[in-house]
Amino acid sequence: NWWSVTPGSQILWTTAVDNVLSGERYANPSGDLKNLLLERYGSFPFYRPKDEIYKKVFGSDWKKILEKEGGLQKIEPVDLEQEKKTLEEKLGREVTTEELVLYLQHPTDAVAFFKFEEKFGHTYVLPPQIWFRRGGFELGEKISFIDYKGKSHIIEVGPTHYTDGKKATYFVIDFHPVVLVSEEKEKKEVSAAPALTKEEIEALAQVGDIRSPFNGSVQKIEVKIGDEVKSGDVIVIIEAMKMQTPLKSEVEGKVERIFVKEGDQIKTGDRLVFIKKK
């Protein structure tokens, strides 16, 4: 496995963020959090978390689950050449070793990142304070920064014009005028549907209607239409904040519809897969 940070710290801070966003501690436990508690990444070096956390994450039968599923995770060898070939097919070009490593860590986000850089250029040219600026930039605002080579730059934000479905934004970069032209996104009048509650999502799963428990992206779909599945089979793996969560079937039946594809961005309550119960 490749890790950009230690698994423990990654899982802890993303769980903390989810606790704040959901307003309830351990309301949406990720697959990685469950693996951590099951000690699949190794035993806890000093002490085990409190029993109440296990109960919140796994339910009242947490002791049986811990006894049955706990222990080091077996990791199958990865065919690096095949993974490299897969990435090259997705991008339509040869890839570097660094790109392959990033793809192995974050299969969905890495592909989107590479395509973004192909369209707009390397992201490291601009400092983080520009990327993380909330609310955008005002007309006439000047942005000063020093790039990764130590060279100073000034960007002045100009007006934006819309013509024939195109959006043209004007800049003055280091005293040279530059025009960025892009496709204008079509505005659609869509009434916001009320978000499903955790209880409603769980109830739908009991009848084979698998919904997303939180915002994220579809990393992998483990089934295809027509497949016979049993209760407990992994149907979809979704990813949020670099954390993977497998969604399992609560019913035995046949996969009748798949509403998403790998790489899709999803929101809480979105339909993923429908399984017709036997």
Automatic annotation (TrEMBL):
Lipoyl-binding domain boundaries: 198-276
Keyword Cell wall biogenesis/degradation annotated: no
Annotated CDD domains: biotinyl_domain
Listed GO CC annotations: cytoplasm
Gene Ontology terms: biological process: gluconeogenesis
Keywords attached to this entry: Biotin
Record carries keyword Protein transport: no
GO molecular function: pyruvate carboxylase activity
Entries under Pfam families matching the protein: Biotin_lipoyl (PF00364), PYC_OADA (PF02436)
Superkingdom of origin organism: Bacteria
PANTHER family in the record: PYRUVATE CARBOXYLASE, PYRUVATE CARBOXYLASE, MITOCHONDRIAL
Name the UniProt record assigns to this protein: Biotin/lipoyl-binding protein
Organism: Desulfofervidus auxilii
